[in-house]
Amino acid sequence: MQVDEVSGEELNDLARECFVPAITWACPDFRGRVAVQELGEAVTLSQSHWGGPMSAARTDRMAARGSTDNLLFFCVQRAGQTGHCQHDRFAKLVPGSGVLTETRSPLERVSSIETQNTTLGFSRGLLPLSTGEITEACARSVDPAAPAMQVLSGYLGRLFEVAEDLTASQQLDAGRAAIDLLAMVLRAITPSVPGGDGPVGVLLEMMRVYVREYLSDPGLRVEELARRHYVSVRRAYTLFERIGTTPGAYLREQRLLAARVLLSDARHALLGMSDIAAAVGFLDLSTFERAFRRQYGTTPAGWRRAHLHGSRD
Q1: Fewer CB within 10 A of the terminal residue: the chain, N end or C end?
Q2: Burial 66-94, CB ≥16 within 10 A → b, else e
Q3: What helix, strand, coil percent values describe the chain, rounded to 5?
Q4: What is the pTM of this model?
Q5: Domain residue spans of the chain
Q6: What pLDDT is attached to residue 133?
């Protein structure tokens, strides 16, 4: 777990390191604290304590040029009040409420008092909603009295407390469960969107599940994925456009995420890199290492050295 304590002058650096680049402002005596827990599969869970008035804004230019524009954040207000503005909507958060924001569009967050938050951050491709539905869900406050919100809020709070005691694979499963709960919450507040989920959304989700279940098969390619689901390759590309990616990119991302889990788990410490590559569907070690470095900025061996930890039952 990463823990940072900062002053107002250090907020910009903290935002860039733990969340996304933003322009921040805080009162002169501001103090903040953020603890971040990685849950695998491009999922993080953080708890923040902001000790006074502050604001953070992501500009049009930042949103257009950022390398993290595929990220989503769901913030649960624990104490105090904050306001979130995006897509010409303003969501006021009170304790127990929550709000979704996306980094590919300009956004602003403001608070005038001391606040505490729990925030789930993840790749937008992991959320089983269409691109339009995600955009429509952003900056809409979720009622703290809603049963689904209460379930999600309680789950995230408890998960943060026990995450360090979970194995890497358990953390991965827990992160996926959190996103599934969030999808349940968002479906209740998202207005009807033309071309929403329906049968098309079900088909897309079936294809995503298939990728995750059979990613170790080196023969799984876009053409095979399309054939298995009785659609053309062109149709497969159209379906994955709904979550802002391509079938090939999604397959590669899931294979590399699975490799990260194996590399981070002490139970697989004796597996060689060729075995890791084969386990996630890469026949060629150099192709695997090249793709891993491009995605994460380090080699598989480097990732293992930095992240390998003991597993607990």
Answers
A1: C
A2: bebbbbbbbbbbbebebbbbbbeeebebe
A3: 45, 25, 30
A4: 0.64
A5: 2-187, 198-307
A6: 81
